[in-house]
Amino acid sequence: MEHFQTDEAHLVVAGGGAAGFFCAVNAARLHPGKKIVLLEKTGKVLSKVKVSGGGRCNVTHALDSVSELVKRYPRGGNFLKKSFSRFFVPDTIRWYAERGVTLKTEADGRMFPDSDDSQTIIDCLLREAGRYKVDVRRHAEVIGLEKNGDTWRLTLAGGATITTPNVCIAAGGYASAEKFAYLEAVGHSIESPAPSLFTFNMPGNPITGLMGVAVPEAAVRIAGSKLAEKGPLLITHWGMSGPAILRLSAWGARYLQEQGYKFTLIVNWLPDMNENALRDAWSGWRLELGRQMVGTRNPFGLPARLWLFLLSEAGIAESTRWAEIPAKEQNKLIRLLTAMEFPVSGKTTFKEEFVTCGGIRLSEIDPLTMQSRLAKGLYFAGEVMDVDGITGGFNFQHAWTSGWIAAQLEGSRD
Questions:
Q1: pLDDT tens digit string along 197-242?
Q2: How far out from the chain centre does Cα 316 lie?
Q3: Which of 121, 120, 89, 119 is nearest to 105 (CA)?
Q4: Are 387 and 80 spatial neighbours (Cβ–Cβ below 8 Å)?
Q5: For tag attachment on the chain, is the N or C end more exposed, with fewer CB atoms within 10 Å?
Q6: In whole angstroms, what is the distance from residue 409 CA to residue 181 CA?
Q7: What is the pTM of this model?
Q8: Could you give the CA distance from residue 198 to residue 248 in angstroms, rounded to a whole number?
Q9: What is the DSSP string of 74-124?
């Protein structure tokens, strides 16, 4: 007889990332004695957890208001209002604390394990999987899913099959629509995937000569759209990155894809002022700093390299005295400070924190159970759904929440 016989389980979880693991370990604890199988298509589980937050794992975000937290999700906010009512930030903190992992909050609200090491989170989840005997199988990719009466049959690459009354798809964000084919085959609709959380490429732009310069607060917007953000900005050797840019990329994921990633970014280096306000205040600086040289006297608190770059772009010599800046160059500098334009052509994935928007259409999932509205016993968790957050621990919170809810197997057959 061939080696690939059919296996049976009470729940099969497809995907060994944060959402899949959280679903599997919680399900194994809640349904003692039942066989829980977790399938991971690669040789590594929890690989995004490992590298997130620079290897520290940004577990969640310290916001205890659901209505505030959902504003951090470009897609899925209304859906999350309901699911967060069942498992939210304090529940995540408590869940890990009960298992010996304490979290700390940084000034910007991001929460990390006290150890500052993502391995702490991975070890905790692996310990739980061992304690409750989750059957973790690597190099096991689901390529087919079919319903037969009350039973699901999963076909794996290589030919093995598993039957189960309950299946949770936690396969992460697929970069291409074709990857969703096996879910469309059971009747689900897909919002086509698009990259989210990426940095902006500015090939050949002289600003890239300032790579490494960080501005604590800048206002950025996309010309011709309503997309705008404020926050820290980092100049890189290929263009611009930092929280302000990443948030803009998340909110603009669909629009920027439609533009073919060719657009104009407008940066205000002085986010508390617009062009008119700066113009009104300028005469005061001319008076106050009159005899000082512009190159050595920058009243805006901008990084020195950026200030000298802006002076050069405006055609003002560093040795010019404040009182002697010619009107034409002064106007140009005011414009550059408050509305500097950068042609963007292309994007770069932000480190390892690659996120896609798109996925299973949310109207087809019950946010209180994570069960498919179309097929009993089929659940979803994590990024495979059309939910995505900006950077800061929001995507992980959605993973924990959806994984925990799916693990309850409400509406399932015992």
A1: 999 999 999 999 999 999 999 999 999 999 999 999 999 999 999 9
A2: 41
A3: 89
A4: yes
A5: N
A6: 24
A7: 0.92
A8: 9
A9: SB-HHHHHHHTTTS-HHHHHHHHHHTT--EEE-TTSEEEETT--HHHHHHH
Size of the chain, expressed as the number of residues it contains: 414
3-class SS of residue 195 = strand
Judge contact between 210 and 241, C-beta under 8 A: no
Q: What are phi and psi of 392, to 5 degrees?
A: 135, 15
- Residue labelled with tokens 């629009």: 255
Residue 66 to residues 20, 52, 75, 78, 103: CA-CA distances in angstroms? 23, 23, 15, 10, 19
Please report, for residues 270, 283, 297, 311, the alpha-carbon distance to residue 321 in angstroms, rounded to integers and kept in the order given: 22, 13, 9, 12
pLDDT score recorded for residue 412: 66
Is pLDDT above 50 for 3?
no
Contacts of 261 (CB under 8 A, 6+ apart): 201, 344, 345, 346, 347
39: left (phi over 0), alpha (psi -120 to 50) or beta: beta
SS (H, E, C) 317-376: CCCCEHHHCCHHHHHHHHHHHHHEEEEEECEEECCCCCEEEEEECHHHECCCCCEECCCC
Distances (CA, A) of 151 to 9, 28, 182, 374, 376: 10, 19, 16, 15, 9
Residues 66, 72, 78, CA angle at the centre, nearest 5°?
Answer: 55
User: What span, in angstroms and rounded, lies between the C-alpha atoms of 297 and 28?
Assistant: 64
Q: What is the pLDDT of residues 314-353, one digit of tens each?
A: 999 999 999 999 999 999 999 999 999 999 999 998 655 5
410 contacts: CB under 8 Å, gap ≥ 6: 368, 369, 371
* CB neighbour list of residue 188: distance below 8 Å, 6 or more residues apart: 180, 360, 361, 364, 372, 374
Which residue is listed with tokens 């049959």? Answer: 153
